[in-house]
């Protein structure tokens, strides 16, 4: 079992195609096929279900994938350690919830790069459970919004409470009066990704109060959700920071509803990088930049004229 075969396995798993994996790795397709067959012989099990052109991981393949990630990453880390004197280190891979990328993470990156321009980061979208992405070594650390909880898979810290708000378009179906959860549950629900922590909690809350299943439509980004809201397609629960401008300009309207849960912007990281000086710099920048952002928001709130 060698790292070339493991890298090939991970590429096929990601691309769901032997042909695309061959292109990705710049090798011939028969080479990809041979490497996968050798892995399957070594492990005495099938790693992929092959149904025509459709390639999917088997249960054994899914279990093997997390270990393959770790082995490849450790192999690269060993090479970097040996060649540290002549080879620059890889970038830190950072997963980010779509609700944070533009509104919290960009200020953190700006703060970081003004002070440490030599630090390389690779930002990846976070559309599923961050703990699993870290546990599978897919990312070094992850910024996300969720309730305060811990996991045996990673360490974490809270950066700030993240206020949420239910919003709709100017001509939305809900008026200015407080809205009961049961009525809210009857509205079409728009979101960026259904896998985000606060979205999952919102759907659970609505599902428990509604008489029918929650109707949710995922758009892939908060900007797309906001455009759908202005078109009058439904309601959405979003970080207040992400819709502050639209609310101030009257393009979106706040629906009076208080969530029965509190969420926080937080960062979690793989325990293997806790002593990495690059990550220490990133974590310090995240704490400082977020604190500045929260303080600025508080000052703007304090200057807002009374109605």
From TrEMBL:
Organism domain of life: Bacteria
Keywords carried by this UniProt record: DNA-binding, Transcription, Transcription regulation
Presence of the UniProt keyword Transcription in the record: yes
Pfam families xrefs: HTH_1 (PF00126), LysR_substrate (PF03466)
UniProt xrefs under InterPro entries: LysR_HTH_N, LysR_subst-bd, WH-like_DNA-bd_sf, WH_DNA-bd_sf
Gene Ontology molecular function terms on file: DNA-binding transcription factor activity; transcription cis-regulatory region binding
Stretches assigned to the HTH lysR-type domain: 1-58
Record-linked PROSITE patterns: HTH_LYSR
Keyword field contains Transcription: yes
Similarity annotation: Belongs to the LysR transcriptional regulatory family.
Protein name: Transcriptional regulator, LysR family protein
Organism of origin: Amycolatopsis vancoresmycina DSM 44592
Lineage: Bacteria, Bacillati, Actinomycetota, Actinomycetes, Pseudonocardiales
């Amino acid at each position: 079992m060698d790292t070339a075969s493991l890298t090939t396995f991970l590429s096929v798993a990601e691309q769901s195609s032997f042909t695309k994996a061959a292109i990705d790795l710049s090798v011939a397709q028969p080479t990809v096929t041979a490497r996968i067959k050798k892995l399957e012989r070594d492990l005495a099990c099938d790693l992929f279900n092959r149904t025509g052109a459709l390639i999917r991981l088997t249960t054994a393949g899914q279990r093997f994938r997390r270990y393959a990630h770790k082995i490849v990453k450790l192999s690269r880390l060993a090479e970097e350690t040996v060649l540290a004197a002549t080879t620059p280190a890889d970038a830190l891979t950072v997963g980010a919830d779509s609700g944070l990328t533009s509104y919290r993470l960009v200020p953190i990156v700006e703060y970081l790069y003004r002070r440490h321009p030599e630090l390389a980061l690779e930002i990846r979208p976070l559309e599923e459970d961050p703990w699993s992405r870290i546990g599978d070594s897919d990312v070094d650390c992850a910024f996300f919004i969720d309730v305060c909880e811990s996991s045996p898979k990673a360490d974490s810290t809270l950066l700030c409470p993240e206020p949420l708000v239910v919003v709709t378009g100017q001509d939305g179906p809900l008026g200015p009066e407080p809205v009961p959860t049961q009525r809210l549950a009857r509205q079409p629900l728009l979101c960026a990704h259904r896998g985000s922590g606060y979205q999952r909690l919102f759907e659970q809350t609505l599902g428990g109060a509604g008489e029918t299943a929650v109707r949710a439509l995922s758009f892939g980004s908060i900007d797309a959700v906001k455009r759908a809201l202005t078109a009058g397609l439904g309601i959405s629960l979003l970080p207040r920071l992400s819709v502050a401008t639209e609310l101030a300009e009257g393009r979106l309207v706040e629906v009076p509803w208080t969530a029965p849960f509190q969420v926080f912007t937080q960062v979690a990281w793989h325990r293997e990088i806790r002593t990495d000086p690059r990550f220490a710099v990133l974590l310090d920048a995240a704490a400082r930049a977020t604190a500045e952002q929260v303080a600025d928001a508080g000052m703007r709130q304090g200057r807002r004229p009374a109605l």
